[in-house]
Every structure is written in C-alpha cells, then in structure tokens.
C-alpha cells in the first residue's frame, strides 16, 4: 500500500501520481493500492486522486499525524504486507520507492535520507536544513538509535512495524514519534539516500512552531515511552 497525506496538494498529486513505478513494482511482485488521506483540501486534490485510481479518504479534523495514523489503521485492516508513505508535494521522488522497498527484506522500517542524498539547491530553506540536522542529532543523543534524517517524509514499513508502533501524534511530530517507537520496540531501521526537490504548492509546516513540537515529542517519549491512551482529539486513533 502507498499512503499519501494531502492538504491542498492538487499540483503535487498531478505531478507525482503518474510517476509511481507501477509496472516495475508489479514485475517485482508488488500489487499496489494507493490511499490518499486528506485533511479537507479546498482545491481539486480529491478529483485528481480519484482520476488516478487512488482510494480517497477525508480524515476527521486535521493534522498530518492524525492522517498517517488513520492510514496505518486502515493498512492493518487490509491484506497488504508493506506500506510506503511519502508527502505528495513534489519534494519526494516516487521512482525511489523501489530502493526503500528492497531494503524491507532486511529491516522493519526504511527511512529515506534527504540529508545525505541528492538535494536540489533550492529544495530546503536554511532554517529547515539546520532544524532537521539539530532535531536528528537530539533524537540520536536521547535514544541512541542511529538516524540520519529524523523528519524525512519518505518511509517504508513492514506489517510487523506498523502493528508494533504506539503513536498519538496529531501533526508534524509523527515522524519523530515513529523513530522513538522504533527505538523503544527495538525495530530494525535501515536508511537509504534519496533525492529531494523544491515543493509544489504551499508549505503547511511552520518551521519554528512545528520544530518545537517535534523537540517536545522527543522529550516526552523519552520519559513516557507509550502514549497516553485517554488523550482525546479528532482523528486520534491509537495504532496497535
Ligand atoms: N491529511 C493531511 N495531510 C496534511 C495535513 N497537513 C499537511 N499535510 C500533508 O503533509 C505533507 C507534509 O506537509 P508539508 O507542508 O509539505 O511539510 P514539510 O514537507 O515538512 O514542509 P516543506 O519542506 O515546506 O514541504 C504534505 O503532503 C501535506 O499536504 C493535514 O492536516 N492533513
Ligand atoms: Mg513537504
């Protein structure tokens, strides 16, 4: 299954969906289902997703973290073995999912590494570049599990990994929380250098506010290793 979170990503979806390497994947024996989880787009993301044969689901409420958790929940109910997620905003290259999937033979989780990959010069602002390095460094200092690019939006998972994760992130702290869950549950994590390009459409992440939330999540999970179950919030599903 391929999971794509969207909030007004019509431009990105139109560019990305035709580039998903369906033929190469099916030659390798992978059957593909594409699931778009949308946070209430006001553009024509829905029409574009449906016209490319994707499943489309509107999440309750907002937030990338809540959307991903809903996607994980639906994946666990499906018959698929593996899941690839990436942000369909034109930054990640769908062609590279083959590299990630091939590493799933040896790991439960594979993370696309932008910081050691081929990054276009205008793809990431200086603030985000610095913030991504800082947060990755802090994560490794706190948890000890090697990580090259904590906030990457390109991951592949085995079913075992997703059934083990315990997550409650609502927004952009979801990737950091997945990393902490890998460390706590002793999941095998592999890294693959990936390309990164300038996004199409508008960014939804606020560097400082979301950077702070990611930092806070790293600290909280270091103390309370599993999420608080009673936490309320729209779209808040605990994946088990
Ligand atoms: N379903 C859903 N998706 C969201 C929501 N907010 C953001 N997204 C998606 O999450 C992905 C990441 O958001 P971005 O704004 O690209 O954040 P980013 O990649 O850290 O920032 P940039 O480097 O500026 O692209 C994108 O595909 C968004 O469309 C939301 O509330 N719900
Ligand atoms: Mg992005």
Question: Could you characterize the architecture of this molecule?
Answer:
- The chain has 240 residues and is an alpha/beta fold.
- The two termini are 18 Å apart.
- Helix 1 (10-16) packs parallel to helix 3 (45-51) and helix 8 (174-184) runs parallel beside helix 9 (207-223).
- Strand 2 (34-38), helix 3 and strand 3 (55-58) form a beta-alpha-beta unit.
- The protein has a 7-stranded mixed β-sheet, with helices on both faces.
- Mean pLDDT is 93; it is low at 230-240.
- The chain is globular and about 45 Å long.
- It has one domain: Spore Coat Polysaccharide Biosynthesis Protein SpsA, Chain A (Alpha-Beta Complex), CATH 3.90.550.
- Helix content is 39%, strand content 14%.
- The chain binds guanosine-5'-triphosphate and magnesium ion.
Q: Layout of helices and strands, plus pairs?
A:
Blueprint: E1 2-6, H1 10-16, H2 22-27, E2 34-38, H3 45-51, E3 55-58, H4 64-77, E4 82-86, H5 97-103, E5 109-113, H6 126-143, E6 154-158, H7 159-164, H8 174-184, E7 189-193, H9 207-223
Parallel strand pairs: 1-2, 1-4, 2-3, 5-7
Antiparallel strand pairs: 4-6, 5-6
Helix pairs in contact: 1-3, 6-9, 8-9
The chain binds guanosine-5'-triphosphate and magnesium ion.
